[in-house]
DNA sequence: TTGTAGGCGTTATCAT
DNA sequence: ATGATAACGCCTACAA
């Protein structure tokens, strides 16, 4: 009735616990006779090791560092802290020490500096928001050289040194945005893709989203929409938007590729421009406000909190129970309206 | 650096491990002096018990039974098996034995019979899909009398004997359906709420969904929609639908309150009726097919797999680590289109 | 009231 | 090559 233990197997096979252990873990130094005796028993009963006992024995403390942008620079990252807190609460009693490190997302140097610091600390693993491609490449190599396991989240960079990734399929995300806008806008109208703030050329996520968005409309040519892309920086935004909306461009919908969509919404509200459909990313308070005001029609939920929590969970279960870390864990792409919003924020 | 153990505390306080244990667990039989000595140490250092060690010591095997409808009668329940399988894979190595029991959802007697069987087995806990109100009331009472912990999923019944519930807010679910349809249909048109198969009067979920759906349109009267409710049984469905769609009722949208929405879709396809917007529940293969064909516009994901998995996780963590079971765990209400569908099915 | 001893299942070490 | 033994941290039983 109870799960058989190594002791039970030893008794059944007529050998000692040590021998059974050697057979199970292929540590060698076992005679053929003993090996066969143990193996026949193993084939008859279904032995599964007690994971609790195993990791109790392994008294090692694990140290995981999370490297991510400071939310003071970009509120998108704020929920990650909750994810970290939850993981801390859940895993400290298992001897796992989780420590966050923040960098300035607008400053490559700070990214480099923080990673250097973490490298010096030499944790067992790092969960990383790899915002900068070239720099990530270099730092990850160093981590790996020092036997530090690296997982990435949010930003999927193709790096040979480490594959572990938790995030979303951003091309598909762009397609979904397109299909939702498509549902709401008139034929023959113009749709604007707006990139705000970040340097488009260095932001693979923004590029992927745009590709997906355009891909959808390319496949639905019969409705004959015009897609135009705009790269706006924060300064001078109002002028740029004046240009976009107050000319006769017949813009019926806007797709903002980041969480900065509230800036567009605020502009539309202030200028009392109505009837333009807006879709963007993430459940920031500012965005939620405009979603409830029906100025933003849809938000796509990137679930940064879950990304971090899941990334940490994978690492912890790897250390504690030897589970494999999935190379690519793509989260569902949630469509949020003012109606179902609440069901995502309460939990 | 390392987490302090009871042994460490004992040494610091100058008493034995046993005394520390008595203080921590308030087992009494401790002198004031000893109590204070231990307590001052406890206040200085932050002791957290090692949960692995605790539950290793507790060699008890836990038995959890899941009571749910047989998916052969209603495919909605099929994904629950995956949830159970995942939980089994995850938790057997922790000494938890999870066993499913199926009943016929159209047959109250089978519900009663299965629960009697489970009661006889006397597991440590039961995770229950409480389809029938009165019968659930009685059986839950018996479970509780026998010190069997009961959690419910999917169907939220107000029962005093046990509160634990994992599922969705169905009123809100109805509202969400309404808002999505509202987005797609013309003003002044008629919307049909269709209940298929189940006995509406006994199905609280269907009633809640209808209430939510009507509530939304009541609050948006300016668009002047007419809402009509239809209770259809499986037999004679075609005739009933002929009546509904081929008369001049100007039906622009249909809300099906269950996973049987594929039946409506199949009818519309067969009869080449186009332009009617359709929304329903659950990611059955039949529904997915019609979603990809754009006959169904939206599906609402009730995530039965996750409901079961989460319900089981709560029970396991309660037994193993003494975590509290949340009284009400409401899952997000996911909006599924043909575009984001894939991101929900892969994981 | 207090301390000690032993065991949960696994693994590492040390004799044999 | 093999078996005995101790240890991980917690808890329980028993002895003092």
Arithmetic mean of pLDDT of chain A: 92
Structural class of chain A: alpha/beta
Radius of gyration of chain A: 26 Å
CATH-derived architecture of the largest domain in chain A: 3-Layer(aba) Sandwich
Supply the number of helical segments of chain A. Answer: 14
Helix content of chain A: 40-55%
| Structural domains of chain A: how many | 3
Number of strands of chain A: 12
The CATH topology of the largest domain in chain A is: Rossmann fold
Write the H/E string of chain A, N to C: HHHHEHEHEHEEHEHEHEHEHEHEEH
Approximate strand percentage of chain A? 15-25%
Q: Tell me which oligomeric state these chains represent.
A: homodimer
Query: Can you list the strand order of the major beta sheet of chain A?
Result: 2-1-3-4-5-11
Largest sheet of chain A: 6 strands, parallel
Largest interface: A-B, 43 and 43 residues
CATH C-level category of the largest domain in chain A: Alpha Beta
* C-alpha end-to-end distance of chain A: 38 Å
Rough outline of chain A: elongated
The CATH homologous superfamily of the largest domain in chain A corresponds to: Response regulator
Q: Which spans of chain A of ≥5 residues are poorly predicted at pLDDT below 50?
A: none
């Amino acid at each position: 009735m109870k799960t058989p233990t190594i002791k039970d197997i030893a008794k059944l096979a007529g050998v000692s616990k040590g021998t059974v252990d050697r057979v199970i873990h292929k540590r060698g130094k076992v005679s053929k006779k003993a090996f066969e005796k143990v193996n026949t028993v193993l084939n008859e009963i279904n032995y599964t090791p007690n994971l609790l006992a195993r990791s109790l024995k392994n008294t090692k403390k694990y140290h995981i560092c999370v490297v991510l942008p400071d939310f003071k620079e970009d509120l998108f990252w704020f929920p990650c802290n909750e994810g970290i807190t939850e993981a801390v609460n859940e895993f400290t009693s298992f001897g796992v020490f989780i420590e966050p490190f923040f960098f300035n997302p607008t400053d490559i140097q700070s990214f480099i500096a923080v990673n250097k610091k973490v490298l010096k600390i030499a944790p067992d693993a790092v969960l990383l928001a790899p915002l900068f491609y070239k720099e990530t490449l270099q730092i990850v190599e160093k981590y790996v050289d020092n036997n530090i396991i690296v997982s990435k989240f949010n930003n999927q960079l193709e790096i040979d040194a480490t594959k572990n990734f938790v995030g979303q399929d951003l091309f598909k995300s762009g397609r979904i945005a397109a299909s939702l806008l498509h549902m709401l806008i008139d034929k023959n109208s113009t749709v604007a893709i707006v990139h705000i703030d970040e340097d488009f050329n260095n932001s693979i996520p923004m590029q992927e989203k745009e590709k997906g968005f355009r891909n959808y409309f390319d496949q639905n040519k019969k409705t004959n929409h015009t897609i135009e892309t705009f790269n706006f920086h924060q300064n001078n935004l109002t002028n740029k938007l004046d240009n976009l909306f107050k000319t006769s461009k017949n813009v019926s919908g806007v797709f903002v590729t980041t969480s900065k969509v509230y800036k567009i919404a605020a502009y539309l509200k202030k200028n009392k421009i109505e009837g333009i459909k807006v879709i963007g990313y993430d459940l920031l308070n500012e965005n939620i406000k405009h979603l409830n005001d029906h100025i933003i029609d849809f938000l796509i939920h990137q679930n940064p909190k879950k990304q971090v929590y899941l990334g940490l969970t994978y690492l912890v279960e790897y250390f504690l129970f030897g589970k494999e870390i999935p190379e690519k864990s793509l989260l569902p792409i949630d469509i949020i309206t003012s109606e179902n919003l609440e069901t995502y924020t309460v939990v």
